Amino acid sequence: MVELLYKIESYKIIGACFEVYNQKGCGFTEQVYQECLEIEFELEQIPFISQPKVELEYKGQRLRQHFVPDFVCFDQIIIEIKAVESLGNPHKSQAINYLKATNFKLAWLVNFGRSSGLERERLANDRNSSRSLKEDLASWQP
Question: DSSP string spanning the chain?
Fold first, then answer.
């Protein structure tokens, strides 16, 4: 049996996301959910940084471009939120790129935009894998 990475932390994070969804429902912008999650993370005593600037580099040189994930929780988990009809490969690619840029091991992609309920995906960074992003995305297809 495989042990889930950051199981307790993930449980707390996703619980906070469900609370926000239960309180606000769908139909708001990402910025509204961002602010609600900031409040909920504080109430649940989940350590977080909201919209940190993640520096990028290429061949050892820092780039002017950077990433801004929605949250980093527990100093090790990326949370990327969306308010769309359904999550697609571009959303997953974005979260995977955040993992690669930070060398973090786990990201949660959370979608508040579905009326049928909170959509969430757990994405792990397998740095030892030789699989390409295209292969990773193909594996997410139903």
Answer: -PPPTTHHHHHHHHHHHHHHHHHH-S-S-HHHHHHHHHHHHHHTT--EEES--EEEEETTEEEEEEE--SEEETTTEEEEEE-SSS--HHHHHHHHHHHHHHT-SEEEEEE---TT--EEEEEE--TT----HHHHHHHT--
